[in-house]
Design goal:
single chain, Immunoglobulin-like, 4-stranded antiparallel β-sheet
Length: 168
Amino acid sequence: MKFRRPILATLLVIALVPVMSSNVVAHSWPQQYYGAGGELTGYVLGDGNRPVDWARVRAFGAQQTYQAFSGMSGVYMMRLPAGSYNVTVDAAGYNANSMNVTISTNSPSYVNFNLSTITVAVSPGSSSAINFYLIQTQVPVPEFQPGLTLTLIALTLAVTLLFRRSRK
């Protein structure tokens, strides 16, 4: 059986795409609890009592760490097994805040967090840079992947040239 070049090029593209996209990695979702226990809820507020959205709320227990995020109105909510937790809240551009909380079964606990804005002092003649990540999954979002883009452009050109040569 004789393969034509366009079919060979197509097979090559199909084989190389997973290899080229190896820098796109799936990450696990934060640990959440749905069993019997209590509920922790409250507001995450910044300077001037403004709601802080996408603030990460983590409850560190004896055996597990649970995580939730505040919504656009600054409200967060998470279910936790009964016990004692160190609850830490952090958000991009704010100093983290922690508090010890005890969760009782079938009893909601209300805890509000006030975060202060990070201040950066830069002396004359110097420079400073602060990098923030998008916090929904705690993974920096690759805004631009030059290696993948250049590889896809080169592969597209190669397939186009092979296809044109095979038509002649």
